[in-house]
Amino acid sequence: MSDRLRNSSPNINPCVTEFQDLPLEVLSEIASYLTFTDVLSFHKTSTKLFQATNSRIVWLNLARDYSARYPHLPRPESGRLDSLETHQIREWAQKRLIIDEIWKKTSACPRRQVLSCFGHLKPCTVTIVPGGRWILVGYALGYICYYDLNSAEPTPMVLVSPEHDEQQGVKGAQQHVELLGVCVDPESPTLEFKIAFGGQDKTSLNIIQRLHIWHVRLTVDHHGFLTASKLVSIPYSPGSRALLHFTGDLVVCVNTGFYSYAEVRWWKDCSETTSLRARFRVRKGPVCVRGIGSDRLLCVYDKGDGIHIYDIPAPEKVNFQQIISRVLSSPVRLSAWSYPVEVGYMGFSELYFDGSRYQQVISTVQGVLGLVIPVSKEELPTVVKLSDLWHTPAIHGLGFLKGYVPYGEDGIRFGYSWDSDITYQRGWENTTWAYKEYKMDFDEGTGRFGYIEDNNIGLIDFSSCT
After folding, report:
1. May I ask which residue range the UniProt record assigns to the signal sequence (predicted)?
2. Cα 50 vs. chain centroid, distance in angstroms?
3. CA 312 to CA 19: how far, in whole Å?
4. Lower Cβ count inside 10 Å, N or C end of the chain?
5. Beta-carbon-side half-sphere exposure of residue 81 (alpha carbons within 13 Å)
């Protein structure tokens, strides 16, 4: 910069201007070491720094850092990070990084919506597909609809219906009654995924309950339409109340009545008439069940019964008559590991797997705990305290690093860490507690919380704050 320009511009800091005189490539390299908030500050400094912070290396590093902190969250729909265009990387990372910043602010203004129901049917279950774009709602009479949350006004689109079931060869599906639940394989990609749901099919003599597994994919044009096709429909008999969990290998259904028992199916080896299954008694009254790999079952109990891990017995091949019978393939199982703690209602996350261990976040009256389960049975599970903050037993949305309670104007947002003592909470002081029971789901990446209350489908969307 010339002396004449320096003298004529006394308000310009020479250090700043000399820094901006560096080549754009050098500025981009420097910016690639900045945090997200620093990058946003650079954005506003000058046109040249705006260009430097919009470079590929800056946003690729930010996206990689985010993925390292949230290894359980799905990557962009279009593919691997390094295979995307710069604008795609920036759009994906910026939206999620802003959610992280919003979560720590004193106040926030999420968009609140009531989604329209499908016809006059009663909504029974709500599930946000990992990635946050789709919300699946199960209705009475066997309908499952999806909503595209990226659209301005999400409307119900039929994904599975009784008529669709008939076309796919599911006998008696037109008499399908209330759904037990809709689960998404957590390892599925965002362009296509698998779902499992339970229900009942009436026959002329009795009621046969079924597990249905379908494959869902985004249409080729990627214009926001999903299609579904049946993979398998499996008869089973879990009783009137059951918890469901689905993985790429297993479907776990645990009856929650007076005599609780687990029914585990290796669904890829099942058909309409035969099943590969293990069926055994567990402690009664679990509030959360998760299949661990293909050989263990995690059950979380309330009222001080704590956390229990059971070894799943060897599977056996059974025919149709054995499937619908209530004969157990093994007696009551003693948990291989347990941890006594009083958990809260809905106070648990999904089960995350990083290749060497499983991790689960559980909210208790002692604070937020992290359960670590090694792959090898030779190593015992461990429990770490993620946060000393006491939360209401009615906590609803819990993720890997942050959670949400939908009370008050903005709700209560809180966060924690697995490798440090950093914790925070926002919105606590402005909230008056009023216990509510929700059927809900929470996506921490996009900050979206879906729930059913008084037969209405609600959406609280923090991504709209961006």
Report:
1. none
2. 35
3. 63
4. N
5. 20
319-349 residue pLDDT tens: 877 766 655 555 567 788 999 988 765 578 8
- pLDDT, tens only, 371-428: 999 999 999 999 999 987 655 546 678 899 998 887 767 778 888 989 877 787 776 6
Phi/psi of residue 88, nearest 5 degrees: -70, -40
Alpha-carbon distance values, 390 to 35, 365, 431 (Å): 30, 6, 15
Angle, CA of 154, 137 and 277, to the nearest 5°: 145
Identify the band that residue 3 occupies on the pLDDT scale cut at 50, 70 and 90.
Answer: very low
* Cα three-residue angle 85-185-438, rounded to 5 degrees: 105
Q: What is the pLDDT of residues 143-169, one digit of tens each?
A: 899 999 988 889 999 998 876 554 444
- For 42-50, the CB contacts below 8 A with 24+ separation are 45/16, 46/20, 48/20, 48/24, 49/20
Helix (H, G, I), strand (E, B) or coil at 381: coil
Task: Report the distance separating Cα 191 and Cα 233, nearest Å.
Answer: 23
CA–chain centroid gap for 82, Å, is 24
Long-range contacts of 28-36 (CB under 8 A, 24+ apart): 28/52, 28/53, 28/55, 28/57, 28/58, 29/57, 31/55, 31/58, 32/57, 32/58, 32/61, 33/61, 34/58, 36/62, 36/97, 36/100, 36/101
By CB atoms closer than 10 A (0-12, 13-18, 19+), residue 377 is middle
Tokens of 320: 């149709």
CA angle 445, 449, 454 (to 5 degrees): 170
Q: What pTM was computed for the model? A: 0.85
Q: What CA dihedral angle connects 163, 168, 170 and 171, to 10 degrees?
A: 70
User: Which conformational region is residue 171 in: left (phi greater than 0), alpha (psi within -120 to 50 degrees), or beta?
Assistant: beta
Q: What's the pLDDT score for residue 173? A: 42
- Beta bridge pairs of residue 17: none
Which residues 6+ apart lie within 8 Å of 10 measured at CB?
Answer: none
